[in-house]
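TA notes, week 10

Several of you asked for a full example with nothing omitted. So below is the full record: structure tokens for the whole chain, then the designed sequence directly under it. When grading your own attempts, check the secondary structure regions first.
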């Protein structure tokens, strides 16, 4: 397939690389051109001067940028994806956005799939992402052929917007688990118990989680200069809390943890990994 790919950040760059390795004809655009040039030096893809140029004649276009405004910036206007995207081409948005935007894009382009990802930079680099999808059945099936290059699992949740709603549920779980892990580590250290031994013991039981396996040791060491940034988690929780207000869901824990992340941001930790919740307990 000829695939336009817009957004070459820590997630998008390896995802686009997997598409090249899967023998697709990939044309990329990135707002910071130097990053696109570096990507082209590592892969056999082509560079585009605008999102519109990346979408021109494409069978599918994948976007993965920052937020709702960033998505609108790359799809709208004379240089945007919609200016040249063929009517029968797929638009696959991997950005974590509001469900409102996903529904809007589905109205504006008849072959649209909202497909937020989970798995972080490591998952993108290893081609092991988990992807939650919203859209029509046949569009999802077509999109799955593209996403198989970088996904270990894709699930069709429902119509447009439902992929984003599933990603919101994912972020709710992560926020609660990380806060619980932070409090557990804080408690053990204040109680004079060896946190390394505690984690070794409880990670093998019902308390075990991906966060405990992959983040507990770095939290104990006070290392947070990696991973999924607090700024991005607050963006995601903002969309989630707004959606909850619209549908009448009660998200007391999420609102509480969002406030804790605001404290981390205020202390200069906006780019730290989400596991930095411990810093407000162990300054």
């Amino acid at each position: 397939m000829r695939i336009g790919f817009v957004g070459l950040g820590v997630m998008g760059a390896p995802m686009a690389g997997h598409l090249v390795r899967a023998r697709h004809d990939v044309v990329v655009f990135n707002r910071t051109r130097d990053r696109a040039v570096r990507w082209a030096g590592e892969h056999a893809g082509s560079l585009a001067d605008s999102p519109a140029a990346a979408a021109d004649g494409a069978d599918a276009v994948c976007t993965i940028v920052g937020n709702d405004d960033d998505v609108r910036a790359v799809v709208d206007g004379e240089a945007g994806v919609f200016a040249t995207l063929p009517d029968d081409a797929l638009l696959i948005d991997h950005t974590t956005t509001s469900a409102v935007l996903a529904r809007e894009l589905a109205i504006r382009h008849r072959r649209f799939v909202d497909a937020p990802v989970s798995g972080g930079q490591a998952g993108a680099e290893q081609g092991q992402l988990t992807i939650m999808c919203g859209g029509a059945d046949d569009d999802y099936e077509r999109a799955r052929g593209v996403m198989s290059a970088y996904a270990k699992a894709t699930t069709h949740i429902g119509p447009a917007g439902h992929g984003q709603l599933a990603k919101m549920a994912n972020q709710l779980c992560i926020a609660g688990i990380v806060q619980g892990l932070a409090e557990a580590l804080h408690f053990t250290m204040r109680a004079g118990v060896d946190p390394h031994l505690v984690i070794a013991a409880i990670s093998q039981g019902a308390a075990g989680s991906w966060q405990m396996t992959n983040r507990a040791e770095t939290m104990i060491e006070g290392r947070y200069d990696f991973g999924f940034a607090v700024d991005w988690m607050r963006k995601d929780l903002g969309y989630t809390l707004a959606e909850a207000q619209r549908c009448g869901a009660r998200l007391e824990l999420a609102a509480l943890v969002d406030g804790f992340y605001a404290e981390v941001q205020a202390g200069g930790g906006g780019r730290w990994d989400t596991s930095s919740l411990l810093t407000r307990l162990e300054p």
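The first strand starts at residue 2 and ends at 6. Use that as a sanity check on your answer.
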